[in-house]
Amino acid sequence: METKKQNGALRVLYLEDSKLDVELLRTILEEAYQLDFTSVDNRQAFEAVLQSKKPLDVILSDYNLPDVDAPTALALAKKYCPDIPFICISGTIGEEKAVDLLKQGAVDYILKDRMARLTSSIDRALNEAEEKRILAEAQEALKQQNKELRIAKQKAEESDHLKSVFLSNMSHEVRTPMNGIVGFSELLIRSDDPIKQEKYVRTIQNSCEQLMHIINSIVDISLIEADQVHVNKTEVELEHIFNYVNSILQEDFERKSVHLKQLEIPENCCELTTDASKLTQILTNLISNGLKFTSQGFVEYGVRRQNGTLHFHVRDTGIGIPEEKHPVIFERFRQVEEGNTRKYGGSGLGLSIAKSFVEALEGQIWLQSKPGEGSTFFFSIPV
Ligand code: ADP
């Protein structure tokens, strides 16, 4: 294998107190490599270079110097530059010492009267160091990949769990109005009392609306997931939107004796260019959530304009939301209540649809809420 250092100069640190040996070694190396050569002749200077983190490719060391020997030099090299190959260059040191050095981590030792071997020894050391580096990089990449896989697996399991929870919630959410429709249709067929008939028809109508709402949510979330949300902006009057929202929600509020308060629209907010159906749905989702989680008091909503942005709020006097749930409730299928004991039902889709629509209108949505102190949802959209 061609082993000569390919990229740039060979960076050598040589610990040697004999000037003649230093010159000899430098000359041999200069013939084989482009060279960046540093020599030192005592322990302190050697340690200083190691500590300075000067980039090195190989460390060479004599065996015996007045204040340091090769095992100590090797220990220092391993301490400061553990990945740089260390080669001992010595007069006869005896096999035992040489083996000890190799055991301690030196890559080779070369006798001073066999210097012809030096360049091939350095080349081999460089190759091994490069292979080690590549292996370490590959191991690091593998570790990283494993970590990413673990995270992906965790996410997939979590998402799988959420989907199962969603499906079981959904079958409950669909079955309840379906049972209403089937049951009250039968009663309707058998009844001749017009007062009862009207009551049954209203119940059937309510159940149909609930079903319609669920189906619409599923269609919306599918479009969002398929990245198929299209924004259709026109000039709209906010009053029309607010009136429409009030008209579709008023009856639900009356049924629950919760007050729906719409604040007056400021003059500078009356007209805007936006996607009316998305804005309507954002407001409807937030206000009906407000109603759903409020048993007494009110749900208030309004708008103000600041710096070319409309700021909407929907405030309720309901149960509130614990702080640790604030970041997750905008994710699809997520609900504060989990498990079979859910009191409020629902699909866990309303807020994630609202968030996607706000973002499609280039706005932001957030909330302030504490358990027992109600909730305020805010969203802003540029006009
Ligand atoms: P759903 O209401 O169908 O469960 P959403 O996505 O609209 O789905 O809401 C997700 C969850 O956020 C709800 O289940 C509820 O736990 C919480 N939440 C949303 N709005 C309110 C609110 N106004 N007051 C209290 N909790 C709320």
Any overview of this molecule?
With 383 residues, the protein is α/β, with parallel strands linked by helices. It contains nine helices and 14 strands. The chain has a five-stranded parallel β-sheet, with helices on both faces. A hairpin with a 5-residue loop joins strand 13 (364-369) and strand 14 (375-382). Helix 6 (194-225) packs across helix 9 and helix 8 (276-292) runs antiparallel to helix 9 (350-360). The longest helix is centred in the middle third of the chain and has 73 residues, at 118-190. It is elongated and about 120 Å long. The two termini are 69 Å apart. The mean pLDDT is 92. It binds adenosine-5'-diphosphate (ADP). Residues 289-290, 293, 316, 318-319, 321, 329, 335-337, 346-352, 375 line the site of adenosine-5'-diphosphate.
Which hetero ligands occur in this complex? adenosine-5'-diphosphate
**What is the distance, rounded to the nearest whole angstrom, between the alpha carbons of the first and last residues?**
69 Å
Mean residue pLDDT: 92
Question: In terms of per-residue confidence, which ranges show pLDDT below 50 for 5 or more consecutive residues?
Answer: none
Quickly count the helices. Answer: 9
**In percent, how much strand structure appears in the residues?**
15-25%
β-strand number: 14
The helix content is 40-55%
Q: Give the biggest sheet.
A: 5 strands, parallel
Coarse structural class: alpha/beta
